[in-house]
Design a protein that fits this description.
370 residues; alpha/beta; TIM Barrel; Lyase, Ornithine Decarboxylase, Chain A, domain 1; 2 domains; nine-stranded parallel β-sheet
C-alpha cells in the first residue's frame, strides 16, 4: 500500500543540530524542548536520539508529555515547563523525578503542603518581560526565603523566557537579560535564558549555565529572513506526497473551490494527494512553492481537505506518480510558512495522524520507532 503523505524524520540531523547548539554555547548544558510531540516530529524517537547523544535534559509542557517519555523508558532528566496543576501532578512529578518549573506562589504552596520526604526538584521562572508566566523580578527575595525554609528541595536554578529574541533590532532582549542578571546578583543557582532565537541571535543570552533550544534542534530558523541551512542547521523533517493527476486547461479556466485561481494561459494543472486534513494550511496562497519530481511548481487555488492543485508550467516533465515535496532540505519549511503567514513551528505541529511517519538514520535505513 502506497502512502499518500509521508513525513521522513532524519535522526542524524537531530544529532547534527544538537552538536551545533553545543558549538554555539560551549559552556552550557542543553535542555532540549520535546514538547508538543517534539514539535510534531515524534517525542519518543526524538527523545531517544537526544538521550543517546548525551543531551543534559529534556523539556515538556505538561505532565502527560513527561509520562509518555517515562513510559518509553527515557531516563534523562525531564523538566515540566508549565509546572504542576494539582496535588496529583505534584506527586507524580516527585515519583517520576521530574523537574518542576514554578511560576506562581500557589504552586509553591502546593509543594510545601507535600510530605517532607517528597523528592522535589524545582526551577523558579522569573518574568523579565514576556508577561506570560513567571514570578515578578521583585519576588526574588521571597523565593530565596522559600528555598531557605525547604532545605530538602533540590534547587535546579532560575530561568526566564525572551519575548522578542527573533527581532534583532529590538532592545527589549538586552533589557531582559540585564534585568534578569541584576535581580539575581550574588544569589546561588544555575541560570537559563536562551531559547533557539536567543541562542542563535544573542550570544550574551547563551552564556549561561543552561540553554533551552527547540526549533533549532529540528533544523529550522527562528530568525526572520534566514532558514536553518543559513545557520548551519540541517532540516530534520521532509514532507512528501505524490502527483495523482495532470490536466491541461485553457486560459481563463477556474481551478478548485470558488475558481479562486484562473489560468492566465493554456497550461497544465497537477493534483497532489495532500490537504488541510493532513496539516497543510488552508491559508496557503496561490504561488506558494512546491517541488514536483525535483522541479519547481506552485500552488494554484485553494487548499482542499485532501488535495492541492499545482501550476506545472515550470515542471513540464511532471507525470502522475512523481514525488511532491512540501518541505525538506531542498525546500525549507520556513519558505512555505511565509506564504501561509505563519511560522515553521506551526507547520510542524499541525501535521495530523493521516501522515505516515518514518524514521531514518544517517545511512537512510528505516527505523520502527513510532
Amino acid at each position: 500500500m502506497s502512502d499518500r503523505v509521508t513525513a521522513t524524520v532524519d535522526l542524524a540531523a537531530i544529532r547534527h543540530n544538537l552538536r551545533q547548539v553545543r558549538r554555539r554555547a560551549p559552556g552550557a548544558r542543553v535542555m532540549a524542548a520535546v514538547k508538543a510531540d517534539a514539535y510534531g516530529h515524534g517525542a519518543v524517537p526524538v527523545a531517544r536520539t537526544l538521550e543517546a547523544a548525551g543531551v543534559d535534559a529534556l523539556a515538556v509542557a505538561c505532565i502527560e508529555e513527561a509520562l509518555t517519555l517515562r513510559e518509553a523508558h527515557i531516563r534523562t532528566p525531564i523538566t515540566l515547563l508549565e509546572g504542576i496543576l494539582s496535588a496529583e501532578e505534584a506527586n507524580l512529578a516527585a515519583y517520576e523525578r521530574l523537574q518542576i518549573v514554578l511560576n506562581d506562589f500557589w504552586q509553591v504552596q502546593l509543594l510545601e503542603s507535600m510530605p517532607a520526604s517528597a523528592s522535589l526538584q524545582v526551577w523558579f521562572k522569573l518574568d523579565s518581560g514576556m508577561h506570560r508566566l513567571g514570578f515578578p523580578l521583585s519576588a526574588v527575595p521571597r523565593l530565596s526565603a522559600v528555598l531557605e525554609r525547604n532545605p530538602g528541595w533540590q534547587f535546579c536554578g532560575w530561568m526566564t523566557h525572551l519575548a522578542c529574541a527573533d527581532e534583532m533590532d529590538n532592545p527589549m532582549t538586552q533589557r531582559q537579560i540585564e534585568d534578569f542578571d541584576a535581580a539575581l546578583l550574588g544569589l546561588p543557582g544555575a541560570r537559563s535564558i536562551a531559547n533557539s532565537a536567543g541562542l542563535l541571535g544573542w550570544p550574551s543570552a547563551a552564556q549561561r549555565d543552561w540553554v533551552r533550544p527547540g526549533l533549532a534542534l529540528y533544523g529550522a530558523s527562528p530568525l526572520p529572513g534566514k532558514v536553518g541551512l543559513d545557520l548551519g542547521l540541517q532540516p530534520v523533517l521532509t514532507l512528501t506526497s505524490r502527483l495523482i493527476a495532470r490536466r491541461d486547461y485553457e486560459a481563463g479556466a477556474g481551478i478548485g473551490y470558488g475558481s479562486a485561481y484562473r489560468c492566465p494561459e493554456p497550461m497544465s494543472i497537477g493534483v497532489a494527494a495532500v490537504g488541510y486534513a493532513d496539516g497543510i494550511h488552508r491559508s496557503l496562497s496561490s504561488g506558494a512553492p512546491i517541488l514536483v519530481g525535483g522541479q519547481p511548481a506552485r500552488i494554484a487555488g485553494r487548499v482542499s481537505m485532501d488535495m492541492i492543485t499545482l501550476d506545472l508550467r515550470e515542471a513540464p516533465a511532471a507525470v502522475v506518480g512523481d514525488e511532491v515535496l512540501l518541505w525538506g532540505a531542498a525546500l525549507p519549511a520556513e519558505r512555505l510558512a511565509a506564504h501561509a503567514g505563519t511560522l515553521a513551528y506551526e507547520l510542524f505541529c499541525g501535521l495530523t495522524n493521516r501522515v505516515r511517519f518514518r524514521y531514518v538514520d544517517s545511512a537512510g535505513s528505516r527505523l520502527d520507532l513510532r
